[in-house]
Amino acid sequence: MTALTKALVAADAACARVAPVWPLQAFVAVNPYLGMADLSLPQAAQRLARVAGARTLQPRSVYLAALDAGEIAPEDLLAARAAMPGGDLPADAAALIG
Hints:
- Helix content is 57%, strand content 0%.
- It is built from six helices and no strands.
- The N and C termini lie far apart (66 Å).
């Protein structure tokens, strides 16, 4: 078997194992959020947890550790809170950390 033939066989084997990423529809089709773009993140997370047992977010302890390490700042929490739809979240960072 020539080097070119070996390369082609290897490429064919790789193509059979790797999910296509183009066209874009082929890539999006494997996205677990497909069909949930109209839902908020909490709604999509709840659905995925119910249907697939999937976690969308890390446990709260991971975020608290990141706060303690300075990887997340209180200002980051306030910015995220401001970006969330609805008004049922606390208005200050200390209450968000709770």
